[in-house]
Amino acid sequence: MNVFHNKIAWVIGASSGIGKEMAVQLAKNGAKVILSSRKKEQLEEALATLERKDEHLILPLDLEHSANFPELAKQVIEKYGRIDFLFNNGGLSQRSNAADTPLEVDRRIMEINYFGNIALAKAVLPYMQKQKSGHLVIISSIAGKFGFFLRSAYSASKHALHGFYESVLLEEEKNNIKVTIACPGKINTNISVNALNSEGSTHGKMDHNQETGMSAEECVKQLLSAVKKEKKEVLIGNREIKAVTLKRFFPRWFWKVIRKQKVM
């Protein structure tokens, strides 16, 4: 059975990269998709690529400004009557040393990647609790499993998501609400281009790690497969995801290996 058929799936960060590909594949699987990000024009372009365009909804939002999230969730309920999946994918990466990064940049990354993320989940959860079903799909990162060069605030924000959603997983089990935390590694998207540098400006460069990474299409295929299987956590990527196992079982070897990896 196709678990996404005729289900309501809210995709954050749907204007590009992994989020845009999620919308495409969910629509192909028969879902009714709500496409959200800050960039309305790009959302409209993404919508134009979807099957059954009239069944979907564009709903712009900014993860940095979460005060209107309850109202946005209400709009989804008024249109569709329920929310079956929340794909919490939006976020912002980093390319700067911790010592060179002003605290306001750390705060902005945390506001978007952590507080904006959980604020949306808190806006959606009451409806999932009422309907006694739902699935929160959180896009973390391999950086949510260990720190890495130039990623201190980004890694911290992703680590925080794990603590929050592992708690939600336990608390909401009684309401039949599922949680899947996805940890992509090197994926070919513009995440490095849009990352913040030590001045809080856009990095503006495609890193080698992203340029040579797994395609967004393959990443989303693996993600949706994990969601169908109701996995609590999934690592997605190529050889780089083996570092998670290495850190768990062979930590001394891990630290020797990780410091030799290409930074960008």
Describe this structure in words.
This protein is of the alpha/beta class and 264 residues long. The chain has a single domain, classed as NAD(P)-binding Rossmann-like Domain (Rossmann fold). It contains 9 helices and 7 strands; from the N terminus they run βαβαβαβαβαβααβαα. α3 packs parallel to α4 and α8 packs across α9. The protein is globular. The N and C termini lie far apart (41 Å). The mean pLDDT is 95.
Describe the structure concisely.
This protein is an alpha/beta fold.
Coarse morphology: globular
The percentage of residues in β strands lies in 5-15%
**Name given to the CATH homologous superfamily:** NAD(P)-binding Rossmann-like Domain
Instruction: Work out the helicity level.
Output: 40-55%
Which quaternary structure do these chains form? single chain
Number of domains: 1
Low-confidence stretches: none
N-end to C-end Cα span: 41 Å
Mean pLDDT over the residues? 95
Give helix and strand order, one letter per element, not per position. Answer: EHEHEHEHEHEHHEHH
- At the first level of CATH, the class is Alpha Beta
